[in-house]
Specification:
47% helix
Amino acid sequence: MEATPGAVSEANRMEFLVDTHRTNTGVEPGTVVADSQYGTIENLLACHDKYISPHMPTVRTRNKYTGSRKDIYPEEAFVYEEVTDTYRCPAGKELTRRAYHSHRHTTEYMAKRKDCRVCDHRVQCTRDSSGRSIQRAIRKKELDAMLSITQSPEARRDIKTRQHLMERSYARRSRYGFDRARWRGLWKVAIQEYLICTIQNIATLIRYTMKLTRGVRTASSRALAGAAWVLQSCIERPTDAGYALIQLPQPDGC
């Protein structure tokens, strides 16, 4: 968990969260499961460089057949010719390099306006008066490899699991005030959210202790429930709880 100002895009924080996970657990992450907000070119290439499988819908795939792209030729219909560094459209016309977009890390290739104006495929190809253009990522091969992983059966399974697993987790923490800041200041909000996440983790531990023997289960559940109560008190009554020192029992085997 990371608390950020509202203007910060969550997509830009994926690498930080991955590195934090590695620091906290001492385990190299093998897979990232996230929603489509994280499915950017930068994050996919970061996963490639860190040897991580990206199990997330991509912004590119989500918007592929919507808006101005609906019912027109997809980029796969255009053939890239490496020797000339050009694209060949379905009508056989050439798209040449036009500009580099540093914020997207892509190179734009565009057809000549006069070719598009008289082309019989224009209706199926573009609605832009300037003609059809193609965006090619700088690290095209690596990106295509990551895109294929995002569409794998394993990725679709994890994405589906995440939908109910994470949304249910958000719903649980809302009862502790996760959706509302009690104090001003980012560092104060971060403390509140860390406490709430700790309560959730303790609740998870309580559920898992149900698998233990009866004696240990009862004692450990009481101890963990007490710890959750203390943390909840810190959120609801920070002044009183901040000066209280509460000793909790530590049952054998817990």
